[in-house]
Amino acid sequence: MNETTGFHASTAPADVVRRQYLASVHGDLEALRATLADDVEWTEMAGFPLAGTYRTPDGVISGVMEQLVKEWDGLVVHDDTYVVDGENVVVLARYTGTNRASGKDLNVRVAHHFIVRGGLIVRFEQFVDTAKVLEAMRA
Prior knowledge:
With 139 residues, this protein is of the alpha+beta class. The N and C termini lie far apart (51 Å). The protein is globular, with a radius of gyration of 15 Å. The chain has helices at 3-9, 13-25, 29-33, 56-71, 130-137, and strands spanning 36-44, 52-55, 72-85, 88-99, 105-117, 120-128. Strands 2-1-6-5-4-3 form a six-stranded mixed sheet.
């Protein structure tokens, strides 16, 4: 088994989370869906434009991922640092992209907390400076 195959088959929490980010940046919603548990709970922070908790892979894809693609050009989550404690994975990252409506660029630090069980993401919570996101969305 080569390293790439091992990574794609790994159920290690950090590997599952990394696959989710890679799928997202490549727009591969099916690969992203494959990282999510059937009963996933995905929480976007209060004050964030998509604030709320989304359930099921379909709910996350339609309620969050497809909406972000509509609102942002080139949105990327730069997953810089991983802190892993058992099934808990905290990722310190940065969002970059350009808002389609305002034409303004976004460059903001973010923290994500994932819980991974059985090789699937069961919980996600976002922490971000929502004021900076909203400023990038204002015309």
